[in-house]
Amino acid sequence: EAGVTQFPSHSVIEKGQTVTLRCDPISGHDNLYWYRRVMGKEIKFLLHFVKESKQDESGMPNNRFLAERTGGTYSTLKVQPAELEDSGVYFCASRKGGPGATQYFGPGTRLTVL
Amino acid sequence: GDSVTQMEGPVTLSEEAFLTINCTYTATGYPSLFWYVQYPGEGLQLLLKATKADDKGSNKGFEATYRKETTSFHLEKGSVQVSDSAVYFCALSRLYYGQNFVFGPGTRLSVLP
Questions:
Q1: Are the C-beta atoms of residues B4 and B102 closer than 8 Å to each other?
Q2: Is residue A3 scored above 80 in pLDDT?
Q3: SS3 of B82, please?
Q4: Residue in A33, A103, A109 to test binding to B, most B beta-carbons within 10 Å
Q5: Can you give the C-alpha Rg of chain A in angstroms?
Q6: Please, what is the average pLDDT of chain A?
Q7: CB < 8 Å to B32, chain A
Q8: Is B44 in Cβ contact with A91 (below 8 Å)?
């Protein structure tokens, strides 16, 4: 069974540009999460999808970030326009439904904004 | 709100040394507690977990006990190996509220042969 995959693994862009990160969850996992780790600090929750619906987006930092999960399969996270403080590692995780199910993490996308 | 604090790294040990990485949390109620590990170039992997007070999670020789009275979940291993070199994250989540994680800042462990 394939794990959670993320693309690209690394992205370098200039301030003001747009970047789109993609996450493919494990097949059959309805729950999908986005997290990020900025400046080597703690990993912070961004948002949670259940199928195609946003269950909780309380961690989204501002309206420059837009997450979508059309069809309830893969998800994208767009940053537009990117700022220097957006640099960090963006992780995606997925899990099956039901309390206590394990969250499986992807390898992350390292975003560098110059 | 909920928060997790863990000891600052990096931690450097010799092979077969004893490991402790301290983790404390602030949260109301009874969250579940976790240790995740990130090996170089890989994603986060669940190492162990405990869902209620006094539970002990264990895996691959690592152990941690959920201590409600001290709000702690310290990670221990009796004899580390070079292959244990990684970043270790302590985290909490709530089973019935979306189950998103609150993570600590991570502790980088380097084990020297």
A1: yes
A2: yes
A3: helix
A4: A103
A5: 13
A6: 93
A7: 100
A8: yes
Nearest residue, CB atoms, A99 vs list B36, B42, B95: B95
Peptide bond into B10 cis (omega under 30): yes
Among the partner residues B95, B104, B105, nearest to A100 by beta-carbon distance: B95
| A4, A42, A106 ranked by CB distance to B105: nearest | A42
Task: Establish, for the pair of chains A and B, how many residue pairs have beta carbons separated by less than 8 Å.
Answer: 57
The answer, yes or no, to whether residue A72 has pLDDT greater than 90, is: no
DSSP A63-92: TTEEEE-GGGS-EEEEESS--GGG-EEEEE
Q: Do B98 and A48 touch (CB under 8 A)?
A: yes
pLDDT given at position B96: 66
Span A41-64, average pLDDT = 93
More confident residue, A112 or B30: A112
pLDDT at B97: 66
Cα separations (Å) of B32 from A87, B90, B103? Answer: 30, 11, 12
pLDDT at A100: 73
What would the two tokens of residue A28 be? 């059959």
H/E element, B92: strand B86-93
Are B100 and A33 within 8 A, CB to CB?
Answer: yes
